[in-house]
Amino acid sequence: MAEKDNHENLKERIGFHEDTMLPEREVLYSFLLDMMPDTIWMLDRDMKPLFVSPSSLKTLGYSPEERLRQHLSDMVTPETYARVVDRFKSEQKKEQEEEVDPDRIVTMDMEYYHREGHTVWLENRIRAIRDQDGQVIGLFGVSRDITERRRLEDMLRERIKELSLLQSVANFIESTDSLEKVFQKTVNEIHRGLSFPDCACARITLDGTVFQTANFRKTDKRIYTYITVRGERLGTLEICYLCATPAGTETPFLDEERDLMKAIAKLLGRVVERRQAEEQLKESERKYRELSILDELSGLYNSRYFYRQIEKEVDRINRYGGSLSLILLDIDNFKVFNDKFGHVEGDEALSRLGEVIRRCIRKTDSAYRYGGEEFTVLLPVTRCEEGRVIAERIRMAFKNETFTTGRGESAHLTVSLGIAGYRPEEDIKEFVRRADQYMYRAKKEGRDKVCVEIPFEGQ
C-alpha cells in the first residue's frame, strides 16, 4: 500500500496526464523527446519506472510501455543493480550532511540488457526528485549509450597491460641479471598481460632448462610459441589457463594475447642472441689478451708481460716485505745446434724448453721467454736457495730431453741458469742484470750448471 501511495504521490507531484504519459506543460516537448538519441527516465524510490522516453526502443529494444511494466532490477545486470543499491544508500547518508547540494548530479555507468540478448552500457546522469519538504521521492535521469566507448576503453586498458608487460620484460633484458634470472622474472610476470590473470600459469623451456610459475600445470587451454635465435628454435614459451573461462568462445585466448606472447618470445630470443654475442666477444677478448702476452713458440709469457709482472712483485716487496727470486736461463751452444740442424729444429728446442719449464715450476711461479734462447722464471716468496731446487729440476729435465733431427741423428741440449734475489728499493734493471751475471758465470764454469747468488747480510 505504501509503495502504491509513493508512486501516486510522485505522479501527482510532477503533474502527469494519464492519456499522454507526459508532465503537464511539457506536451509541447513531445517532439523533442521523440527525436532525442538519449533516453530520459524517472524512477520512484523503489526503482520502479514512472516515465521512459521513446528512445529506449532504439537503444535497448524495449518500448516505453514495456519499460513501465519492469523494475530496474529486470533492466540491468545483477552486478550493476548491486552497485546502484550501494550508491543509493551512500547518497542517502550524504543527505544528513549540512552542506550537501540537494541538486547534485550523480553519474553512473550501468550495464543494461538489450531485447536481443546482449548487453549495452549506458552512462546515466541522475538527479533526485524531491517533495515540498525536500525529501527524495524519486530519481530523474538521462541515459546515453557508451557501449563503443567502453569497448575502446577496455581495449586501451588491455593494450596498456600488454605494454606494461613488454616494458617489464625489456627492463629485465637490459638489467645485469643472469640469463636464468631474466627468464624466471619474465615467466612470473606474463600473467599480467592476460585477460584472466588469476588463473593463468606460464612456462619457458630453453635448451632443456625449465623456468615456470609455481602453479604451472599443463591443461587443454594452452597456447605456445617458439623462442628462436638466428632462425634456430632454442625453446618454447607456453601459457595455460587452470580454470574455466567465459563460455561462447572456441579458445580462451584473444588474438592480441597470441601476438603478445610472440612479441615476448621475440624479445627473449634477442636477449639470448645478445648474451651469446657478449660471451663470444669476451672469449675473443680473452684470447686476444692471451695472444698479446704469450710467446707463440714457447707457450710462455713474453718479455713485455715479464716486466709488467716483475713491477707488481717488486712493488709488493717494497710495500710489505718478503722475498723474491729470479731465474735467468739460456740454452747452451744453441747457435751451434741451430746452424747444424736448421731453424726448424731450433724452434723445436725452444718449444720443448717451454714445456719443460711449465712442468717444473709451481702454481705461484711464472715463466717467460725473455728473448732468443733466454728465459726467465719469477719465484714469489722464495729465497735463492729455495729457488735452486726449481732451477735444478729444470736443468735435469731439459738435459734428459732427446731431439731427433731431420738427419735421423739424436741430440741433447743443456741450459745454464743463474739465480738472484731482490734487494729492497733496488732498480728492476739492476735486479735482472745480477741474475744475468750469475747465468753467465754458470756458462763460464762449464755450462749445464746452476749458479746462485750468495745472500748479502740481512737478505
Describe the structure.
This protein has 459 residues and is an alpha+beta fold. It has three domains: 2-145, Beta-Lactamase (2-Layer Sandwich), CATH 3.30.450.20; 158-276, Beta-Lactamase, CATH 3.30.450.40; 303-452, Reverse transcriptase/Diguanylate cyclase domain (Alpha-Beta Plaits, 2-Layer Sandwich), CATH 3.30.70. It is built from 14 helices and 18 strands. The protein has helices at 2-14, 30-35, 55-60, 64-68, 72-75, 78-94, 147-174, 179-189, 255-293, 303-320, 334-341, 343-360, 384-399, 428-444; strands at residues 16-17, 22-23, 39-44, 49-52, 105-113, 119-130, 136-145, 200-206, 209-212, 222-229, 232-241, 324-331, 366-371, 374-380, 403-404, 410-411, 415-421, 450-452. A five-stranded antiparallel sheet has the order 4-3-7-6-5, sandwiched between helices. It has a five-stranded mixed sheet with strand order 13-14-12-17-18, with helices on both faces. Helix 7 (147-174) packs antiparallel against helix 8 (179-189). It is rod-shaped. The model is unreliable at 17-22 (pLDDT under 50).
